[in-house]
Each structure stands twice: as structure tokens, then as C-alpha cells.
Write a structure and sequence with these properties.
It comes from hydrothermal vent metagenome. It contains 16 helices and 62 strands. It has 1027 residues and is of the alpha+beta class. Strand 27 and strand 28 form a beta hairpin.
């Protein structure tokens, strides 16, 4: 992943004018820290996010607290300053000596806009309702907590103190006006009823002297009592557990007078020291529930804590293990290496895939060992074994073996082996939110046939798991995961995703799922409990809480106020996961197994794989993940966002006992493609990178090669050309490696769209794709030919192997990739030697027509019979669809003419060969249903975007059942200077889904904003006119 910083292009439109014409509130913000910063600022939407005198905070020398008072418009800024601003609220952050941070006491932050804190502005405005759910507020250790809130009235009004009301759970406290300090604007109140331990709901209500009202709600946790076990209830696979406790006085303060206490469990008790009122010890666990209490004598009375349970989990599941040995023409399949942890008797059940090239006849057999005849038909054969013990605990193991056409010995799959579909993989990177206007999983299903026809056999889907807010086309694209076991609701349902995977499988397409082993979102329940309870929670161990010096790829290592580490450039929204913890590791492995076993996904793309790899190594993550997943599904692709080429990178690959099948070729992208200069020097650099400078990680180690992805800019934008990208595409599709294409790349989406950097960058790489973009006619046929040629001709997908049997893959083995001399530095050519069907690619990187002559009689052409000048061969022009039969001597002067940035792809074969190009079905642009009443307001992204000269804008008004009362709806368009250029809607409208066409024929190219107002609903989005 890449770090993202929103660049705000709209200033505060008429802010001073609007403040003068409407109610405003003077709101004071406070910031307290244990550090000693020199400068603290309050940047936000109310001051243009500036770091200067207009946002500088002042420190109280007595308390050390920083503060600043800001005058804010009631109902928030108008119009909204940014597309993802919060209607009715102002966004802000603190900046302490250059470090940006959320307001630690404000539980509200905008996940769709850099996790900015925000505050709703009403009359009166309620700020800092405490205690609350933030880690800064923490656990309340007294049953009589102080409830406080700042209540700021609008100018020319005051707080109606008689209206003040606090509700805790179901208990209301009224007549508390004397607890409000009108000078400090602070309400401070202690409830008269003691609160039990647990989570409590807190609500405050206030009215102004003018009759307007406001309320706010939060939750907080109480853990009171004189003797407390502070450790949280936990479940663990570990054999011992740390227990922490404390002794308190009646005021909820630590009691330092007690020096000894006792921990009890039903079967044992332990005398423990009490140091400064605290207990900290580690005790062994027995199987199952471990109920502990802490007991201490206080003033002659024995006080006992509430009971704490630590559940010690023990593995009771047997392990299935298939062993395959060959005895001549017979294969022996044995379950003898299966085992049960309690040594119980096992029963067996064998199975096989019905899609195997031949049926083995083992399905339903129950013997520990069975024998079958060696199949005759070449291909991959998948077999499975289920074992069950007498307690009905069960496990399954699946594996495969390979029968070759010309090899008597079958190859049994090992830890490192790849399935055939991976070896000939062509990856289509799919972002659901960009793929169709609807942006859902279900809307993508009708287009799977298009992906198949394009020639791709693997779909990599960006994350589909639950995140805060909705997936959008900017920065919230799925990597801030808060529930790894749910499908993100804005994308669809589990049923939708299962249908997507099943439909892909029916078409012969594999699906790999993007997931985040490096981090969870800070709003994940584990992270929230860890932040709130720190090392008292089992989940504290699930996160990185100590500094681990390592290469952070320039992102920097930062730590939250609670002590959890993260990569600075990712922000504290993404907290580093700890793979060295047994419980954390087992949990995440179970997550990965869930999507494989329940949904049939065919592998993963591991986001920021390099992070946990560098922090913990392959022993803690890569190896156990691969071992567990391959146990249940051996035909997987495990792709890691990790450098995968060059000496030292081999340790991440399964060939060298790492966890991955494939990793990134960053060197090729940055030094061979992104920097390509369309000259002979660049051609030489490109070949060096494609050849890995002669370095080969292993037979099963693949390097991902691409021109663009969800993190990088569109290649047509970088080169401002469709044509220039074509020979580059030919090079990576025809060269060794695992090739990948981003959705929309095949139409050249992105060329000429906006300025460099965000937010235009996100519009290009993640925006809703215009499938009729101007590069379609040129690029779509090109990419289909490349993908289909690679799919149908093994010469172009082959991978260098250990052909001399010395255990290494190096220059001593048979070559699979040779550069050919074209006599012209700007025309690049290489040969992919393959028996009887040799691949040849020639690319012109010039803006002029070129003609080259190559001597093919002295190159590494491979045939069953040796190459002969007098033998006949076929020259198959796969790219243009023609074939010519020639003598070997004719290949001494093989002449090729190439147009500007043209490509030629051949096989030199013993038979005539042609590529089959299926008809491309059109993209089905699934829209949202127009006949269903929506449940909420929504302003959709215009389509197409960019547009010329017209585009469609859709919006939804919710049904009356959703609480909406009919009011006037306005939809207006503004230019970059906030000047109104069009009014599209200005009328009363009933609930429903609407669409309107905006024609910009009379406007110049550039960025425009459309703004909707309907009752209290406000929303703004940007669009690009590109003429």
C-alpha cells in the first residue's frame, strides 16, 4: 500500500460572509500530552488546514494543557470544503511539532478523509462528553465517575440550564443546572447511584435560550471494587498467563498500604506480592476454564475480586496426511502418517476431484492404504483424505500429483509446488468499486465472461472485508479492515461473493483475495480493546508493542499514545499486527482458512507482506500460513507485496522454505518501465530487468510484473500516450514472470485525466471506469491478443527450470529467455525457446516505422529434431493472424517491419499455429435499481468521469419511513473558484432514485464540483471535464 494525503482543492467558500449571516458558536478545543512540544496547532476546515498563527494553540503554564477557541458556523461549513467532508460538522486535527494526530478525547473521526476528527456544530454545541470510549478516557475505576462536557451556546444566546439532562443507561438525572459553569462552559456532575462493572451508555441533552437543542451520546467502561483482577477475560493456546490486579481505596485510588494478596483457583491458590497496590504474576493454566479470583485483607476484612476466566484451548483435532508412493505402474495412497493428539482410533474416507483427467476410483474408500493403477492421461490429479477420531473430531488433507506425457515417474506435490494454472497465470486486478457504476460484487458477475474472453485466468480482487464507512474511489479502498470474517456491506453480501467465486470457477477463472497480514484497522474490536486496556487485554499481544528496527520502505515507524506501533505514512488507522504471538498467529491463519474453505478462494494477495516478514521472519508468518493453507487446498497462489527479485529475496519463496509462490518485481517497474526513456539505453535496461540480471530464485518462484496497479498511476497518464504503452505491454506479457493487468488498463483509462498527485491520481487509478474511453479501440484488442497468446502458447509462459539436476536454477540450466540482436537499439527482440513451438517477440520503441533483419539460424531454436537449414518450419504471425512455411535457410535473414510503437509475436514451429480470439462480450454497466425506494440519502459519482461533453449524476432521496420529510432539493455545479455554473435541480421531490444529465458544452476543460442540498442533507463530489 501507499500512504495517501488528501489535497484539498476547494478553499473555504465565502466563509467569512456566511459566518456574518448566520449563527456561530465559539468552541474551545483542548489538547493535553505527556510530551513537551514546542508548537501545537489546530488545523481544520475552519482555517484551511493551516499551520500558522491562525491555528496556533496556547499552553496554560499551570496545567500544561493547550487550547484554542474558534468561531464556527452553526450547521457546519457551507458548501462542504471537500468531497468527503461531514455535513453539519467541521473536521480538524492537532499538529504537535509536525506530527498530525486525531483529537485523543474525541471518539468521532472520518475514515473516508484521513481519519480527521470532526465535531457537529449546533446551538448549543457539545464537546468532550466524558468519560467516553476513547483510550485517552480509559477504564473508570470508581463506581461514582465524574460526568463532564463542554456546552457552547451560539452568539447572542445562552445555555438553558433548566433543560440539562444526563442519562446513564436507564437512569435520568435532571435539575443539574447548578453543575454548569457558564464562564468555563463546563458541565461537571457526579451521579448519586453507584455504577456496576461493565459498559455504560451515557447521553446528555441541552437547550439554548432560543429554544434550539442538541444531544450527544457515548459509552464508557467501569471496573470498580476494592480488589480487582485487572486482566481481561481471555482465550489462549498458551500454557501460562499473566495476571494483573490492584487494590483500591473507596475513592477509586490505588491503595499502597497492602503488601500481600492471594490468587485463587478451584484447584490451587498462590500467595503474591502487592507492590504499590499492584499485583503482577504469571501462572500456569490447566485445560479448559481457569477461574481466578484475587483476595486481600483490608482493614481486617477479606475482600475478593470478581471472578476472571482464562480459557486454555487444547488442540483435540487429528491431522490428516496423504502419502503417495509409486511402485512401477501402481500408486499407493496411504493415511498411515495421519495422527490424533489423544492417540484415538481414526477412521478414513478417501475422495478425488471429479474433474481429474481420469477417475481413480477411490471416492468412498475407507481403508488406511489403497492402491490404484498409474493414470495414463497426462495432467494434475487431486485426491483428498478425511480422518475422524472416536470423539468425532475431524480433519481433511488435499494434495495432487502430476502425470507427464513423456515421464514414467509421477510427480507428487510438495510444499513448494505450484499448480498448472499458476504457472500459466494471467492476473486481472479487479476493484469492484471502479468496475461498474454500481460498484458492487453482484454487478461484476455478468462481466466475468468478458474477463475470460480477454484471456485472463486469475482475478485478484481488492479487499472485500468489512471496513469503517463505505468503500470509495479515493483512499478508503478496503485495507482498513475491522472485521476479517464479514463481506463489506457497501460491496454486497456473503452470498454475492460466493456467487462471484463460483461463477468465476465455472468459467475456469481462479480468484485470489487481497488481505492485510501487516495490520488491522484501529477500529477492529481487537485493536479497540488493546488500546483501551493495553497489556490487560489478550489482544495487546496481537499487535506490535515494541520497536523492531527494520527497513520500513521509507514509511517510518510511529507509535500510538497507547503504545501500539504503525507505519507513520499509513497513519495510526492501520496498526501493525504481531505474528510472533501464538494466539494472534492462529487467529489470522483461521481467517485465511475460512475464506478458502467456505468460499473457495484460490489464494491471497498479502498486502504489505514485507512488513511482518521484516519484523518477524518467515518462521512466524510465511511458513505457518502456507503450511496450513496448502494442507486444505494445495492448488493455491500466495502472492506477497514484497520485493521478489535479486539476491536476498529468495528467502520469501517456498523454494527456499519461505511462504510465497510469487512476489513483486519492483525493480522492473521502477527502473525498467516507469523510467523508460524510449531510447536504446532504456531498451537495454528493460531487458536486464526482465532477465533479472541472470538471477533466478527457484523453479516455483514467480515475480509479479505489471504496468499499473491500484497503488501506482495509470501508465497512459505517465507517458501521455496510448501507443507508447503498447510495446511495454508486449514485453512483460511475453517475458517470464507472472503478468498482471489493472481493470481499465485495456481501454487506456487515465490518459490526460487531471493533475499529478491526489485527488486526481485516485480518480485515474481507482475511479469508475469509462469502458468507452478513447484508448479502447487501440488497446483492448492489443491486450486480448497478448493475454490469449500467453494463454495458448507455453513458450511465453514457461519458467526456467533446473534442467541439469544440480538443485539450482541458474545460467547452467537450459535457457527460456534469450535476447536477439536486431541491429537496431530501439527495436527490442527476445526468443522463448520451446520444443517445436519457439516464441519470438519483437517490439518497436520508436515513433517511426522500423524494419529489422534477424539471423534466426544461429539462435537457440529448440526442435525435437535438430534445426536444419533444409527442413521446413512454420513462421506463425500470432499477432496478425497469418502463417508461412519456410526452409530453415530462409530464417538466416528474417525481416520484420514494424509500425510506430508496433509489436510482432511469432512462433517458429513444426506445425501451423494460430491464436484463437473469442468474441469480447460488452461490459455490462450494471446500475442501481431505479424502481426501489432508498433507505438513505446518497449522491453518486457522476458517470462517465472524466466526461465530454455530458455526464449523468444520480442521487437518492429516502422514503418517509426513513424519517425524511419532503423539502426542496437543489443540485448545483460549481467551478474550481466556487462560482456557480449550473443549477440542475431546484424543486420539491418525493422519495426515490433520480438522475440528471449535465451538459458542459459551453464550459472549458477542468475540475468541477456538484453540490446537493435536501433538507438537512448536504453532499459534494468532484468531476472532470476533459475535452
Amino acid at each position: 500500500m501507499k500512504p495517501y494525503i488528501i489535497i484539498f482543492l476547494i478553499g473555504i467558500f465565502l466563509s467569512q460572509f456566511l459566518l456574518a449571516q448566520s449563527d456561530s458558536v465559539d468552541v474551545t478545543f483542548y489538547y493535553s500530552t505527556d510530551d513537551f512540544p514546542t508548537n501545537v496547532y489546530l488545523p481544520g476546515e475552519f482555517n484551511g488546514w493551516s499551520l500558522n498563527s491562525s491555528s496556533a494553540m496556547t499552553q496554560d503554564p499551570a496545567t500544561g494543557i493547550w487550547s484554542r477557541t474558534v468561531r464556527l458556523r452553526v450547521s457546519g461549513p457551507f458548501p462542504l470544503p471537500a468531497p468527503n467532508s461531514i455535513p453539519g460538522a467541521y473536521q480538524y486535527k492537532f499538529n504537535s511539532d509536525g506530527s498530525w494526530m486525531q483529537d485523543p478525547l474525541n471518539p468521532r473521526y472520518n475514515v473516508n478523509d484521513n481519519n480527521n476528527s470532526y465535531l457537529y456544530i449546533k446551538n448549543p454545541t457539545i464537546n468532550y462528553l466524558l468519560p467516553n470510549s476513547t483510550p485517552a478516557s480509559g477504564i473508570i475505576r470508581t463506581r461514582f465517575p465524574e460526568i463532564s462536557a463542554y456546552i457552547f451556546p451560539a452568539k447572542n444566546s445562552s445555555v438553558d440550564t433548566s433543560s440539562l439532562k444526563i442519562t446513564i443507561d436507564e437512569i435520568e438525572y435532571t435539575s443539574i443546572g447548578r453543575s454548569y459553569d457558564s464562564e468555563k462552559k463546563l458541565l461537571s456532575f457526579i451521579p448519586t447511584n453507584p455504577l456496576p462493572n461493565g459498559v455504560h451508555k451515557l447521553n446528555i441533552f441541552a437547550m439554548s435560550s432560543t429554544g434550539s437543542s442538541n444531544s450527544d451520546s457515548t459509552t464508557f467502561t467501569v471496573q470498580g471494587g476494592l480488589v480487582q483482577l485487572l486482566t481481561m477475560p481471555s482465550e489462549t493456546w498458551k500454557t501460562s498467563w499473566r495476571l494483573q490486579g490492584a487494590i483500591f481505596d473507596n475513592n477509586g485510588e490505588i491503595d499502597t498500604t497492602i503488601s500481600v494478596a492471594q490468587i485463587n483457583r478451584a484447584d490451587s491458590s498462590w500467595i503474591v506480592e502487592v507492590n504499590n497496590g499492584l499485583v503482577d504474576t504469571t501462572l500456569y493454566l490447566h485445560e479448559g476454564n481457569n477461574f481466578f479470583t484475587l483476595e486481600a485483607e483490608i482493614n481486617g476484612v477479606s475482600e475478593v475480586s470478581d471472578s476472571l476466566n482464562i480459557l486454555h484451548k487444547i488442540n483435540k483435532t487429528p491431522t490428516a496426511k496423504v502419502s503417495i508412493t509409486q511402485l512401477g505402474e501402481t500408486l499407493s495412497l496411504s493415511a498411515s502418517q495421519s495422527a490424533d493428539p489423544d492417540s484415538q482410533q481414526l477412521s478414513y474416507l478417501w475422495g478425488e476431484d471429479p474433474s481429474n483427467p481420469e477417475l481413480l476410483g477411490i471416492t468412498g474408500q475407507t481403508a488406511e492404504e489403497i492402491q490404484v493403477s498409474k493414470p495414463v492421461t497426462a495432467g494434475e490429479y487431486y485426491v483428498s483424505l478425511s480422518v475422524t477420531d472416536t470423539d468425532l473430531n475431524a480433519d481433511s488433507n488435499r494434495t495432487f500429483f502430476v502425470v507427464d506425457d513423456d515421464n514414467f515417474i509421477v510427480k507428487v506435490a510438495e510444499y513448494e509446488d505450484n499448480p498448472e494454472w499458476l504457472k500459466n497465470g494471467r492476473i486481472y486486478l479487479l476493484f469492484f468499486k471502479a468496475f461498474t457504476p454500481a460498484g458492487t460484487i453482484k454487478a461484476a458477475i455478468p462481466n466475468l465472461e468478458y474477463i475470460k474472453a480477454m484471456g485472463f485466468n486469475i482475478i485478484w480482487v481488492l479487499p472485500i472485508t468489512e471496513i469503517p464507512g463505505d468503500v470509495d474511489n479515493q483512499i478508503n479502498i478496503g485495507y482498513n479492515i475491522i472485521d476479517f470474517l464479514k463481506v463489506e456491506s457497501s460491496l454486497g453480501t456473503k452470498e454475492d461473493y460466493k456467487e462471484f467465486v463460483d461463477t468465476a470457477h465455472d468459467l475456469g477463472i481462479k480468484v485470489i483475495q487481497d488481505i492485510t497480514p501487516n495490520h488491522t484497522g484501529k477500529e477492529h474490536p481487537f485493536a479497540k480493546e488493546a488500546a483501551l486496556n493495553r497489556d490487560l487485554s489478550q489482544y495487546w499481544n496481537y499487535y506490535q508493542t515494541v520497536s523492531i528496527p527494520h527497513n520500513t520502505n521509507g514509511l517510518g515507524e510511529c507509535v500510538t499514545p497507547e503504545g501500539i506501533y504503525y507505519y507513520c505514512a499509513f497513519s495510526d488507522a492501520l496498526l501493525n499486527y504481531n505474528w510472533s504471538d501464538l494466539d494472534g498467529r492462529n487467529y489470522m491463519i483461521d481467517v485465511y482458512k475460512y475464506w478458502v474453505s467456505q468460499f473457495g478462494v484460490d489464494g491471497y494477495r498479502f498486502d504489505v507482506y514485507w512488513g511482518p516478514h521484516r519484523r518477524y521472519g518467515e518462521d512466524d508468518m510465511g511458513i505457518p500460513v502456507r503450511t496450513s493453507l496448502k494442507h486444505i487446498k494445495p492448488d493455491l497462489l500466495l502472492l506477497g507485496e514484497q520485493e521478489g527479485t535479486g539476491p536476498g529475496t529468495e528467502v520469501v519463496y517456498a523454494d527456499q522454505d519461505g511462504g510465497l509462490d510469487a512476489a513483486y518485481d519492483w525493480s522492473l517497474y521502477w527502473n525498467g518501465i516507469r523510467s523508460f526513456g524510449f531510447n536504446s539505453t532504456s531498451v537495454n535496461a528493460l531487458h536486464s530487468k526482465l532477465a533479472n540480471a541472470g538471477y533466478y530464485p527457484g523453479e516455483n518462484a514467480y515475480y509479479l510484473r505489471y504496468l499499473e496497479n491500484q497503488d501506482e498511476d495509470r501508465i497512459t497518464y505517465i507517458f501521455n500516450s496510448f501507443e507508447k504503452t503498447m510495446p511495454l505491454a508486449t514485453s512483460i506479457f511475453m517475458a517470464p514472470g507472472l503478468v498482471q493487468m489493472l481493470n481499465g488498463q485495456e481501454v487506456g483509462f487515465g490518459k490526460g485525466m487531471g493533475a499529478s498527485g491526489e485527488p486526481d491520481l485516485n480518480d485515474r487509478r481507482r475511479g469508475i471506469i469509462d469502458w468507452n474511453f478513447s484508448g479502447k479501440e487501440l488497446l483492448t484488442p492489443h491486450y486480448q491478443k497478448l493475454a490469449q497468446i500467453r494463454a495458448q502458447f507455453t513458450a511465453f509462459s514457461q519458467h526456467r527450470m533446473d534442467t541439469n539436476g544440480d538443485g539450482n536454477v541458474d545460467s547452467q540450466d537450459k535457457s527460456d529467455f534469450d535476447r536477439l540482436d536486431t541491429g537496431n537499439g530501439i527495436v527490442y527482440s527476445f526468443l522463448r525457446p520451446y520444443k517445436d513451438s519457439n516464441g519470438l517477440a519483437i517490439m518497436n520503441f520508436s515513433n517511426e516505422d522500423q524494419s529489422v533483419t534477424i539471423d534466426l539460424t544461429n539462435v537457440n531454436l529448440e526442435f525435437s529434431d535438430d534445426f536444419s537449414l533444409t527442413s521446413s518450419y512454420w513462421v506463425n504471425d500470432l499477432y496478425n493472424g497469418s502463417s508461412t512455411q519456410v526452409l530453415g535457410s530462409d530464417l538466416a535473414a528474417f525481416t520484420v517491419s514494424l509500425g510506430t510503437y508496433g509489436s510482432a509475436i511469432y512462433t517458429i514451429s513444426t506445425q501451423e499455429e494460430m491464436v484463437y480470439l473469442p468474441t469480447l462480450p460488452p461490459i455490462v454497466k450494471v446500475e442501481k435499481e431505479l424502481n426501489s425506494l432508498p433507505n438513505s440519502f446518497e449522491l453518486s459519482q457522476n458517470y462517465p468521469n472524466p466526461f465530454n461533453p455530458s455526464t449523468t449524476i444520480k442521487y437518492s432521496i429516502p422514503s418517509a419511513a426513513s424519517g425524511f420529510s419532503l423539502s426542496n432539493v437543489t443540485l448545483k455545479v460549481y467551478d474550481i473558484l466556487s462560482r456557480e455554473v449550473a443549477t440542475l435541480v431546484n424543486e420539491q421531490q418525493s422519495p426515490g432514485n433520480y438522475e440528471v444529465t449535465f451538459n458542459a458544452s459551453n464550459l472549458t476543460s477542468g475540475m468541477y464540483f456538484y453540490y446537493i442540498k435536501a433538507g438537512e442533507f448536504r453532499s459534494v463530489k468532484k468531476m472532470i471535464l476533459l475535452k
